[in-house]
Amino acid sequence: MMRTSLRGTVFLSLVLITLIAQGCTLGSLVTRYEPLHPSTNDSVSVTVMAKRDAPSSFPALISKLELFVYEYQVACSGSGSVTAIRRAGGKWGDLAVKKYYWLPQAEIAEPVSLAAFPSASYVTYIARITDVLGRTRSESWSFAAGDWPCPSAPVPLWRNGPHNCRIDIAFVATQPYYVTPREMLKGLKTLIFDGYHQSNGIAPGRGYWQFYYASDRLTSFTVSGQKINGVQNAPPPGNRFHAVAAIHNDPPLKDYWDGNKLFTAPISNRGTAVHETAHVIFGLADEYDNATFPAFVPKSGIAGTQQPPPDHPNTFQDRPSCEAYNVNHSLPVSECQPIGNTGWYRSEAAARQCIMYNDGDANLPSFGPTCTKRTEWFYKEFFPAKGCSASVLDPSAVPESVTIFPN
Question: What is the pTM of this model?
Fold first, then answer.
């Protein structure tokens, strides 16, 4: 009788494990660190946020957290290349934390302290969670630490892959709002982690986005009334960056975009920064009445060679083409509306408040359905067609040399 009962218990356990495995996914994993570009020998903290995503009643809870650290030394060449080479005697695969949850967790938010780093450091970390079924999820990111030895090259704040498979954004500080570029970093932490990473048009492809800042210069504006109409001394985007953002601290100013890769944004206005970035990177047009840029923008920094008609535009040259798009994408035909007197049409009602209709200033409006189709095209079609993926490093196969900037 006891043997039969034991067999029954084992059988039920196997059934339960199978149901768990089939009925849920491992969930989300997101990390951030602070301070951005820590000074030489400053301590660094990485926060790991994870939660299980279980549609069934059998959640796969988190049972273990690990965070691996790898330390490089940065080297610059006269030709302009910047590389990072494994530092002799530095951390390499060291575990900053290995924590078991004896009571498995549905959600965690764990701060992890890293040791301070010397000058000319480039640090990579890999965060990995494991659930009670032994399944894992990881993400890996890199950042500069200590005095930056390559003044003509912007400093990597958040990086994980090669330029040709990523969206690279460079920030530059503007005077008189900042006396030194480093003064901008505290605000950039909020702008990146609570702005860009929280946007529904960016978060799904978060692994493709990289951020840098110029440590060697300050920009300045030319202003007419309350409108910025030019930027001086910004680093040229060239082939290194897909967008350059001149950051200031004067929200009442009307911001500027040069129609190509350069734009301005207040440090406190998450919505403005994401709106302007959406012009440059996704090629999305303005949807508000009497818009400055109501037409799809073919100069997008990533898909710049793509000419209209593009894949998934958010504005249309006439009502019939707008209505045809809405029919094909299950949007109400009645939502096609003229964009003021521009002659163009948006496919979503103003009430949806897409970020391209109203950037929200310090708030962060969502990308509407039409704009979201465009962002999804980037992550699911454009990048994969180039052979790119938002890959994650394996702790056992981290390269000992990394090219941050080629020649």
Answer: 0.91
Q: In which residue ranges of the chain is pLDDT below 70? A: 1-26, 54-59, 236-239, 296-310
Q: Is the dihedral of CA 217, 222, 228, 231 positive or negative?
A: negative
pLDDT score for 263: 92
- CA–CA distance, 342 with 291 (Å, rounded to integer): 7
Residue 232 CA from chain centroid, whole number:
27
pLDDT tens for residues 117-167?
Answer: 999 999 999 999 999 999 999 999 999 999 999 988 999 999 999 988 999
CA–CA separation, 276 and 258 (whole Å) = 10
User: Is 6 exposed, middle or buried (CB count within 10 Å of its CB: 0-12, 13-18, 19+)?
Assistant: exposed
Q: What is the pLDDT of residues 234-272, one digit of tens each?
A: 876 656 788 999 999 999 988 988 878 889 999 999 999
Query: In the chain, what are the domain boundaries?
Result: 24-150+392-407
Say if residue 15 is exposed, middle or buried (CB neighbours under 10 Å; 0-12, 13-18, 19+): exposed
Q: The tokens 């008189």 sit on which residue?
A: 176
Residue type, 314: N
Topology annotation, domain 24-150+392-407 = Immunoglobulin-like (2.60.40)
Whether residue 115 contacts residue 43, with contact meaning beta carbons closer than 8 Å, is answered with yes
DSSP classification of residue 395 = T
Q: Per the structure block, which two tokens stand in for 238? A: 């060239």
Query: Which residue do the tokens 């009645």 mark?
Result: 334
Give the pLDDT score at 104: 92
Per DSSP, the residues of 117-184 read --SSEEEEEEEEEEETTS-EEEEEEEEEESS-S-TTSPEEEEB-S-GGGSEEEEEEEBTTT-SSGGGG
Cα–Cα nearest to 181, from 206, 144, 207, 208: 144
